[in-house]
Amino acid sequence: MKAMRLHAAGQPLRLEDVPRPDPGPDEVRIRVAACAVCRTDLHIVDGDQPLGRSPLIPGHQIVGTVDARGPAVQSPGVGARVGVAWLRQACGACDLCRRGLENLCPDATFNGWSADGGYAEYAVAPAAFVYPLPAGMADLQAAPLLCAGIIGYRSLRLAGVQPGDTVGLFGFGASAHLALQVALHWGCRVFAFSRGAAHRDLALRLGAAWAGTADPPALLDAAVTFAPAGAVIARALACMRPGATLAVNAIHLDEVPAMNYELLYRERAVRSVCNATRRDGEEFLRLAAEIPILAETDVLPLEQANEALRQVREGTVHGAAVLVP
């Protein structure tokens, strides 16, 4: 099969012909129809996130059809249309898993990092960690939902967003443009912060009440930062009302900056967002079909994965980049 593989951090992916993987006893094999490109993929390729294995096929926002399954798998069946997200597997037995925090499991594994992912014609994944997809949701629409969408949804929840809140989204890319649609569905007023004029225009077109780089027209009840720049944390806190919570949605951050205590005082809170649970994914995909959420996509062939990553790096993607074999 064709696959784009990473052999060392900082090097371009190589298009290679590799054996088609066979599913393990509890796994399914998926013929990939689309795989969205995540900023986490970029952090892995650039070396910001240490390589989990080498060589590696990146990609963890996979949509496709089950074409084979291991002997222990009862569901999904061959022919089922499924999605694969970042969390590959958790132990299910540790204290964190028992408390519903499988995203924090110390033995968790991740697609496209600790195991090969979806920048290929086929991928395998544990059957218990794949998602059935709504019948009316197109492949190119579904792919960005499987990480950018799920983690954006979890971020809004961890920020304590309530119906009617004024919500700030800092850094307006693949995840934020989906989170905005969730917040609007909840009756929130959304302010989008971005240095890119095209991203601000997209936010306004999707329904943001304001988009810019200056001080917003009102204080924020909750906020999420999506940019991997620590300086954005202080910027967001300066825009928030007392008692508000900021969720930092980043697997990699350049630094946590020194800041004046006044930014945290009056019970403002900062919390990180780490991975997502299967429950997050199930809830979000139901909600995405109900709204319905529409992902803005730039579609490229699999062979152009390096170009897609360059566009993510430079912030020129219009919504989310999606690779198709």
The assembly state of the depicted protein chains is single chain
Biggest β-sheet strands, sense, barrel: 7 strands, mixed
Task: State the share of residues found in helices, binned by percent.
Answer: 10-25%
Q: Write the CATH homologous superfamily of the largest domain.
A: Medium-chain alcohol dehydrogenases, catalytic domain
Reading off the top of the CATH hierarchy, the class of the largest domain is best stated as Alpha Beta
Q: pLDDT under 50 segments (min length 5)?
A: none
Structure description:
By secondary structure, the protein is an alpha/beta fold. It folds into two domains: 2-144 and 276-324, Medium-chain alcohol dehydrogenases, catalytic domain (Quinone Oxidoreductase, Chain A, domain 1, Alpha-Beta Complex), CATH 3.90.180.10; 149-273, NAD(P)-binding Rossmann-like Domain (Rossmann fold, 3-Layer(aba) Sandwich). It is 24% helix and 27% strand. It is built from nine helices and 17 strands. It has helices at 39-46, 95-98, 139-142, 148-158, 174-185, 197-206, 231-237, 278-290, 305-314; strands at residues 2-5, 14-17, 27-36, 61-69, 81-84, 87-89, 109-110, 122-126, 130-132, 166-170, 189-193, 210-212, 220-225, 240-249, 269-273, 297-301, 320-324. Strands 3, 4, 5, 8, 9, 16 and 17 form a seven-stranded mixed sheet that branches. A six-stranded parallel sheet has the order 12-11-10-13-14-15, with helices on both faces. It has a two-stranded antiparallel ribbon with strand order 1-2. Strand 1 (2-5) and strand 2 (14-17) form a beta hairpin. Helix 4 packs across helix 5 and helix 4 (148-158) crosses helix 8. The mean pLDDT is 97.
